[in-house]
Amino acid sequence: MSDKGKELLEGAYALSSPDDNIDYYRSFAAHYDKVFARDMGFNLPQAVASQFSKLAKPTDRPVADLGCGTGIVATLFSKDTIVDGFDISPEMLAIAAEKRRYRNLIQIDLTAPGPDWPSDYGAVVSSGTFTHGHLGPDALETAIGLGRAGCLFVLSINKAHYSAMGFEKRINQLAANGRIKDLTLSKVPIYLDNTHDHAADMAMLCCFRKG
To answer: How is residue 135 annotated by DSSP?
Structure first.
């Protein structure tokens, strides 16, 4: 792993607030695709896109990509999939725009109130955003609010934080209350590169439909 890759990785794990995210990705947006995603084998975009392709019906459109970053997930969808991207970093969104795979790109803090957010998506996906320092379990309510009834969700949640940060408890509550249904959980590796301290880190791939 390069020194730049190590710096990117350790910086991501040190984030703790929306302002931290804005500052961090302002510095590293230009290096993200090559140094982090490609060289370190960041696996979550592929895992999320693959699971989406397995579960999605033709009616599960359009798609909201939460924490879309530089737009890697959208490039893995079929060309006819309509996708809107949401992210807090204008620099990351600028790179996503260059990929020309998004209908709309929206700069937004998903931890803040947003009464005017849309609520008619057929699917909501997220790759690497539900974790410490990015989006916590409270943001699950925001995500669910974006979808219409029956909306498909494919969300990666860092396994180390799944129980510790309250994701597991919140998801179980949502299922018990009928807010979500058809819940499945599976484990996937976050990275394919095995030369750094986080090489063994795993994520929970959390899939369900809005009740």
So the answer is: B
For the chain, the C-alpha Rg in angstroms (whole number) is 16
Three-state DSSP state, 21: helix
Mean pLDDT of 185-197: 86
Instruction: Please list, residue by residue across 42-62, b when 16 or more beta carbons sit within 10 angstroms of its beta carbon and e when fewer do.
Output: bbbbbbbbebbeebbeeebeb
Q: CB of 133 within 8 A of CB of 67?
A: no
C-alpha count within 13 angstroms, C-beta hemisphere, residue 178: 0
**Residue 37 vs residues 5, 7, 122, 153: alpha-carbon distances, Å:** 9, 13, 27, 23
- Token representation of residue 91: 């620099």
**DSSP category for residue 37:** I
Q: Which amino acid is at 157?
A: I
Q: Which of 103, 106, 104 is nearest to 88 (CA)?
A: 106
**pLDDT tens digit string along 11-66?**
455 545 555 556 666 767 787 888 778 887 899 999 999 999 999 999 999 999 99
* Interacting residues of 173 by C-beta distance below 8 A, sequence separation 6+: none
- How many whole angstroms separate alpha carbon 53 and alpha carbon 76? 10
CA 70 to each of CA 60, 97, 100: distance values in angstroms, whole numbers, following the listed order: 23, 8, 11
CA 161 to centroid of chain Cα atoms: 15
Of 11 and 153, the one with more pLDDT: 153
- Residue 113 three-state SS: coil
> Beta partners for 204?
157, 187
Cα separations in angstroms, 6 against 19, 30, 176: 21, 15, 41
